[in-house]
C-alpha cells in the first residue's frame, strides 16, 4: 500500500468516527457547556463573542500570525505529514506551558488564557498551511484556516458538509476575496459557543484548587493536539484532491 492509499484509509476511518455515538467526555463537555451558557450573563457572552471576533479579524487581515517558515512547495505528502507532527508537538509544549502558568494563577489568570490559547492555535494553523504548501498571504487560505478551526469545534452533523467543501476547495475558494464576506456573514454567537462547549470540560478543571497548573497544562496540550489532528486531515484532503487534479492534466 503506498502512502497516499494509507492516508485515504485513515481519512475514511476518521470521517466514520463522526457518526459514532458521543463518548462520555463529549457528553460531559456538552452538559457543562449548556449549564455555563445558562448562567453566564449576556454582557459576558457578548464580551467573549467580541474577543473571538477580534481574533478572527486578525486572522483574516493581520500579519500577527504569519510564520517565518517559507511555503514548502516541494514536500511529498508523507514529508509534509512528518513535519506537521513536529510543528504540532512544539506548539503543544508552548500551550502546555501557558496553561500551567495561568492554571496556577487562579481565575483572573484563566481569563487571560482564553485569548492566549486561541492565538497559539492560530499561529499553529498558519504554520501548518506553509508546511503543506499553501501561502497564508492568500486571503482564501486564511478562510481555509478558519474553516479548519470551525471544523474542529463543530458538532458532527456539520462536519461532513465542511469536508465536502475542502474536497472542492479549488472551486470554493473562488468566492472569497478581500471583501471579507465570510467575516460579515459568520454566525458569531454559534461560532463562539461551539468552541467554548468543545473545551469547557477540560478548562474547568483548571479552576480546581491544587491541580490548576497540572490541569491547565493537560487541557491546553490535548486541545492543541486535537486541533492539529484535524488540521493534518484537512490539508491531506486538499493535497489528495490537488494530486488527483494534476494527474488528470498529465
UniProtKB/TrEMBL annotation:
Give the lineage.
Answer: Bacteria, Bacillati, Bacillota, Bacilli, Bacillales
PANTHER family recorded for this chain? PROTEIN ECSC
The record ties this protein, via InterPro entries, to: EcsC
Which superkingdom, per the lineage?
Answer: Bacteria
Instruction: Cite the Pfam families for this sequence.
Output: EcsC
Species source reads Cohnella ginsengisoli
Name of this protein: EcsC family protein
